[in-house]
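Would you mind writing out a protein's amino acid sequence and the numbers that encode its backbone to help me picture the idea?
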Amino acid sequence: MSTTIHARLRCSIGRRLLPILLLSSADTWSQPAPIPRDVVPYQATSGVYDGQLLAVVADTREVRIANAPWLQLHFKAYELGAESFITVTSIADGGVQILNARTLDQWRSNSAYFNGDAVKITLHPAPGDKGVFYSLDGVVIGAKVEPSAHELRGPMALCGTDDRVHSNDPRSARIVPVGCTGWLVSTGAVLTAGHCTDPLSELAVLEFNVPASTPDGSIRFASPANQYAIDAKSVVASEGEGNDWAIFTTHANPNTHLFPATAQKAFYRMSSNLMTFGTGPAQVQVTGYGVDNTPPGIKGGRNAQNQTEQTDVGLFLGEDEIDPHKVVIKYRVDTMGGNSGSPVIYPGTDITIGIHTHGGCGIDPATSNQGTGFKNQQLEGALQQFLTFFAEQVTYVDGGHASGAEENGRVFKPYRRLEDAVAAAANGDILSMTSGFYAGWGITFPKGKELRLRATAGPVGIGASPRPQ
């Protein structure tokens, strides 16, 4: 796990805005649901080619592992020069990934995940490239779904009956193979639970627009155009009750060359103020990729909704600011393994108040599921400086944010008007601007103040608004 926390984060105990309901957390557990998989040795080598004056298809072959529900290729070695590339195509559904030397490095010599038991690999040597080839030494395949220890003991953090329903939120994604949930936020980053990041030392993939699983609960993968290799070097994380969080980014998709926020055209906003809309939330919503075995699938276990996107709304029980780096939020919302890292949302809005991390809910109304609240000052500090040099100061601007509190330019309380951010920012600050349009009429940049503008989570427009009469 990568843990990089700025040593000079300020810590102070904030004012509690809601009554605190202290509940026992003795029977809570983290909620990943690792994807069952096996590694099959597989040796194959293409020919060695020099690119010709005109680009040609030099080598095509099929890789098949009989009866595998899905597969992923591992490349032992390759030489693709400056412009040569490989295409990998699923025989089952036609999903295609395009890989060159740079993107294969980003994917750590692995392909995307492909549905079905066979793919076609095609080598495309480019003019001027010499000695172009690839070799394979293994294939990762889907394995039989075995129930986890928590499944064997009974429902995992269902607060009675399973009330989750199918959802199609473009901001939410599945993290494989660890089996967690990640989600896009307005700063351009992705959030999840800290305990989901241990496997990110291996290749981990963030996938959006996930299809239904098979009737026996075996997952099916999104199109390769919707899969993104997580940049392990970007991961900033922490673990522990009320301090379980992770922030990361991905590489651009090899096919579309887009990052997730641009491709999905959606993101959540974040607030540490539970009174954003005048009162604290009576209910919260959790959206994620939890295990599902209710009703049982065709083999008596997981079903076609297994680890697909589902959502539920339930009672919010309050938050406990144990210390500035330990803030627990509690709620009776149905979750299962795989929901770790899910957003905790103000229902009916794009505002999130924390990250779901642990299960423990049951029929007893005194039990709850829980997460890490955004009043956690360590998390706020990490988000404030994420992907900047720590010497740089960042002022956040978000015209669509409903902070419900005094704006201060911090990540949870951004300025809504560009002119306010310009006036408040110090010389040399970065203005981190959430996607949207910002009126620019009448803005005066103080003499001698240099500011850098950075667009996050999509395009930013700055233009003239009508002159006031």
